[in-house]
Queue: 2 jobs
Job 1
Amino acid sequence: MRECIRKGQFTGPTGGLAPGYVQTNMVILPKEQAYDFLVFCQRNPKPCPLLEVTDPGDPEPKSLAPGADLRTDVPKYRVWRNGDLADEVTDIVDLWRADLVAFLLGCSFTFDTALVNAGIDVPHMRDGQGANVPMYVTSIPTKPAGVFHGPMVVSMRAIPREQVVKAVQVTSRFPTMHGAPIHIGNPGAIGIRDVNKPDYGSVVDMKDEDVPVFWACGVTPQEVCLASKPPFMISHAPGHMFITDVRDEDMAVI
Amino acid sequence: MRECIRKGQFTGPTGGLAPGYVQTNMVILPKEQAYDFLVFCQRNPKPCPLLEVTDPGDPEPKSLAPGADLRTDVPKYRVWRNGDLADEVTDIVDLWRADLVAFLLGCSFTFDTALVNAGIDVPHMRDGQGANVPMYVTSIPTKPAGVFHGPMVVSMRAIPREQVVKAVQVTSRFPTMHGAPIHIGNPGAIGIRDVNKPDYGSVVDMKDEDVPVFWACGVTPQEVCLASKPPFMISHAPGHMFITDVRDEDMAVI
């Protein structure tokens, strides 16, 4: 799959591809901002669970995918300048610099698979729902670090009432993939006015017996970028993740 | 307890003190080496589970113990210059500088309590054994980052054969306190010639039915310091930990 992406043969979203393999969010920053971002991730492990940090100028994620190239192996990239989205591209070979550091962050695709495997009915994983989870900017502030600050973004899964406990258990096994929910039941309590109007992603059908359950989301760094305006940043395009060589189950703590 | 330590009324080891509260390892480095050490911790989360990073020059660990002062609230400190132990002191007020960053790392005292609470017979927690766990330098290399490299240090607990599985389960709940064991049963497989000759800590009685179980250890940064020779570093003295305001159970993932 990564070879197809590298050759430009595939530029779409990666949800459901290479099932069983960990996919990650990606943030690339100049070394000058990298220290602050590392501390930011340490202080906000639920939205920003750090899986790998590359050496400056080295585009190879030696731990999660030896031999891969982060300049070409993500289907779609976003280029940010001073906090504004400047461009969307399918490789960053021409933008790469000797001072760039890549951060790979856990992604909820791993626990979505685990939820489905556990027999939990996750709306955006149902046939025809398009596998795009609804996401919301909350009133929960992240803990600032250096130049980085901003609100936490969450994803929502509408879980049948009798499966909520199981959903907590299943996702708790994956602390580096956002882990257990941060809130169950009351969108207003975390600053979400209307669950039918997500800030990112798509609305999903909610049944009467469904409870809205919220998890910290890897889109948080992009919202933090909007707020913090670093001079230069590259990220994956939402849904267009980096596919690693690591199996989902290798990331489970129990 | 921290007030006693701050006033110099207590300068001893902290094992067993303030039971139920998380204690941490501590490493203090100039900002210049802090980035490399942050990446080192990210790459070696089992021996170096990072719980807090302070802002440069700020001795207050705002997350784990608001109001505490890391210059006075550790019972005993070690001062390292170019990788050599230069001094052992009971406060670092005169050594503090505007560019110093403190790293607080998880400590196995938390899961020792959990093991005992789970009914597991941990030798160094038995009466009269002095609560000092045996520790060994292994043949397992840490993943290097910038200037930091060196071998992993492990602690050993001799666990009765029929309780080994339970010990894995209990410690798995605390991934930020070194988590699950890294090896069970064969000291030679990880480069330990003789379990009766630990590199740090004390020998403990092993019974015939005991299995040696090894966990990654927070002494690793000190061994890495010996190998990597940063110009200036301060750490806690072994066993003389920083006591936080956070409860052990707050750190459990499930």
Job 2
Amino acid sequence: MMKQQVEIPERLTGKLRIRKPNILVTNDDGDCEGLRMLLEVAKGFGNAHAVIPNKQRSAVSGALTLHKPIRMRKMSEDMTAINGTPSDCVLFYLHSGHYEKPDLVLSGINWGDNTGIGSILGSGTLGACWQAVLEGVPAIAFSLRKKGHEYHDKAVWGDREAIMGRTTEIIRALLPKLDKDNFFSVNMPEEPKNATIVNTNRLQRERFTTQVTKRLDPNGAPYYWISGLEKEIEPGTDADHVIRRKDITVTEVSLKLFAGD
Amino acid sequence: MMKQQVEIPERLTGKLRIRKPNILVTNDDGDCEGLRMLLEVAKGFGNAHAVIPNKQRSAVSGALTLHKPIRMRKMSEDMTAINGTPSDCVLFYLHSGHYEKPDLVLSGINWGDNTGIGSILGSGTLGACWQAVLEGVPAIAFSLRKKGHEYHDKAVWGDREAIMGRTTEIIRALLPKLDKDNFFSVNMPEEPKNATIVNTNRLQRERFTTQVTKRLDPNGAPYYWISGLEKEIEPGTDADHVIRRKDITVTEVSLKLFAGD
């Protein structure tokens, strides 16, 4: 367990407030080892509480649940699950009255990288960060390159201490760069080859070739699966760095992209 | 019914193809008058087919359904409903093998404007357009400033011919500007004051103040509604144009925003 107390810059927490920063931890996978690692890392920086979806909500983008009620279930002192999306988790934390105003949102650690432009829009992990900055709270998303679907198995996540150490160092490095208009998406290979972090906004256009597969149920009625096959990696892109060169990458997404003129 | 046959530029359909363009019409409200108007307008430009969510999917952003199967139901010769999101509709149209490759995706006409940065990420109507351009198909989203929730009532949509006429003119104006890296989000007031279309990328940061309202069910257990209250309109923004000045606005969103360097 790390014990460092890195200061979150005053411009984010407001001057003269002598208190520990409040940190919301969320993700799109629900309760799993990636979430628990990030929650523990967050506690090294301040008061951290996790509000997470009560089930797998990958690829849910910035979706909000406006047409049905949200139920909450407190799982432990530091963790609450709701029947909502990652963006719902952010709004619930901010506006339900159950928590103090957050200074920072951390989302992840996601099972699987979020490289490519499609992830900027489609990832639930990043959807939470979009929602956070729209509400004026800076955010960082963490995604770990992983294959397969066994994310519920704690044993397959890799070296816990190493991953938490890297995550801590990255948060330290990014804190001075955060403001209320941006968020950062961090992608980590399983075993980084290089200590330096690559800043890149050169994203692969599409990481996946979409497939729609038709099957017949036992009654003979058709149903379809939407899925994706990994495309070839484009040299020089975020995917190239993370997957082929085993670099850690950081991509900044700023709302100023849409501030016009 | 309009009979104009406006050419979709060759660079979008591919040279030497002497055929009518294929147009996918989708939305996030499901079957309603706004969808039917846009489908009829689309038929003035080519072969148009609607693939839509089988229920209301507002605010669903670019969410994809990867964890459960999709069922399709053909509603009529020109309309298919699936138990999916707007982005699912785009992928289903492109990859199920039931349709020819689309030259253009039209999404809407949405009940309610999609002004503000939050809509760029959160709207299901725009989510379909993001998905389309990620797949290399140009797209236009149409949203009509409306209040209330009676969108199922055909009578409350306003002057059908006037809305369809405006929509047709806007598509004509935008066709030469479309490419495989961008989409356009069009916002229309109910009764425009000006004939000119305002191009704006100066978006209001947040159009809504989020509220999370706690209630108790008949058993005394709490549940929560996530909702939003309209904020004051910021002068000079897209919302100012559409809502206060009654202008039609067009906002271009380009994937080049994320192409870096």
